[in-house]
Amino acid sequence: MAHLADSGAGAESNGQRLARLRARRRWTQQRLASEAGYSLAAIRAFEQGRRSLDRPAVVLAFAQALDCHPTEITGAPYVPVATDHDGQAAVASVAAVRRGLLRHGRPARPTEAEAVVDLPELRQRVDEANRHRQAAALTKSGAVLPQLLRDLQVAAELSHGDDRREVFGLLASAYECAMQYLYTLGYTSDATLATERVQWASEETGDPLRVLAARWYDAGEFLTIGEHDEAGAIIDAALTELGAIRAPGPEAVSLRGAFHLKASLNLARATDAKAAAHHLKQAERAAEELGEDRNDWQMQFGPTNTALWAVSLPVEMGRGKEAVAQAEKVRLPKDYSRERHSHFHIDRGRAYFYNGQREQAVHAFLEAERLAPQATRAHAGVRETVGTLIRTQKRGAVVELGIRLGVV
User: Fold this and answer.
1) Which end of the chain has fewer surrounding CB within 10 Å, N or C?
2) Cβ(34)–Cβ(44) under 8 Å?
């Protein structure tokens, strides 16, 4: 059996976790290469940290071969370093948010003080939670979500008729905030639970478009674990329903475009580049039809969003030159969400890395960190790419960034 990569002094890399999982199955590197469809040289480079194991499609291929969850390779969730006080505070609220999710559907048993439902106040608080979500303010999200979920669950139990349907719409939105908060911090199992809650709450609204919007997240859950056929079935069914709408309004057009984007990502990770490009083109047509950026159900779609996905897709496929060319065309509106701004810079950094432009990659990651510190530091692709840069470069700003990420 080939030797495991030397762990060195730094944090464990994806490649080292891959080597440990391989050893657990008593496989040689050659056996893993054969099972996952990669060369022996690639396996050695991944395990020794000379090649970045950051692309989800590659991680999924190894996870499926080794019959493990992708997070066993990526190491999520990550513990923030001791000096990252905001990161520590953000993670401290995870248990309380999880308890709020587990309470869904259970008798609320409201106290006397909770017996009066104030819908205007609940709307304001859900709007506040969504502002935190779009600003990638994870510490603030963690602070407001537990009580907000509790109050909305009580309101859902006490309300009737149209008020009840509205409360469930607000609850679905709050669950989406919880889902994003947990997913960003790397708590994928809890984020999956939040996604289920989004679907259940959406069903109670009686709004067919709201229900379809929840399925967009459901498709993402299957995509994340590499179940591309299941994700594709959800997406295809949704597109069929949306296509049957006569004279669709802007909400339906926006949702149709968002599903085409999800289809393109699913197919990119399934390494079907031609089909991915087809769905991206369909999304671009929907964006042209829409003529504006919209944020229905806090789901951003429009010309700007499709331009960002035109960067994300070649990044997913490891096409650095194409991704860099697309990134250089993007002009983000100043009022676009901080979360999306930061994610664009993460994609841009990974594009530069794949294209061999290492200095530019570091600068892009630093800009993402400036905009959304906790989200950037918890991003599996950033952590692995920065770790690889440090192992093969070991100088300058990349080392300082690596210290903040906890990968050195």
Assistant:
1) N
2) no
Residues 285 and 356 in one domain: no
d(CA 90, CA 81): 12
d(CA 166, CA 210): 11
- At 179-213, the pLDDT tens digits run 999 999 999 999 999 999 999 999 999 999 999 99
Within this chain, do residues 98 and 176 fall inside the same structural domain, yes or no? Answer: yes
Residue 333 falls within a domain, yes or no?
A: no
Question: What does the pLDDT look like over 104-132, one tens digit per residue?
Answer: 989 999 998 888 899 999 999 999 999 99
Contact yes or no for 374/405 (Cβ under 8 A): no
Which ranges in 248-396 belong to alpha helices (H)? 250-269, 273-290, 303-316, 320-327, 338-354, 358-371, 373-377, 380-392
**Taking a C-beta distance cutoff of 8 angstroms, is the pair 148, 125 a contact?**
yes
Please give the tally of structural domains in the chain: 4
Terminus-to-terminus CA distance in the chain, angstroms? 28
User: How far, in Å, CA of 198 to CA of 110, rounded?
Assistant: 22
Residue 355 maps to which CATH number? 1.25.40
In the block, which residue shows the tokens 């199955």?
Answer: 25
Strands (E), 45-116: none
Cα dist from 313 to 264, 322, 347, 404, whole Å: 8, 10, 9, 28
| Alpha-carbon distances of 124 from 66, 93, 128, 294, rounded to whole Å | 47, 21, 6, 20
Beta bridge partners of 300: 295
Instruction: Please state the φ and ψ torsions of residue 294, each to the nearest 5 degrees.
Output: -120, 165
Asked if residue 408 belongs to a domain, the reply is yes
Cα 217 from Cα 221, distance rounded (Å): 7
Full DSSP string of 61-79: HHHHHHT--THHHH-PSPP
Range of the domain at 306: 209-310
Q: Does residue 3 fall inside a structural domain?
A: no
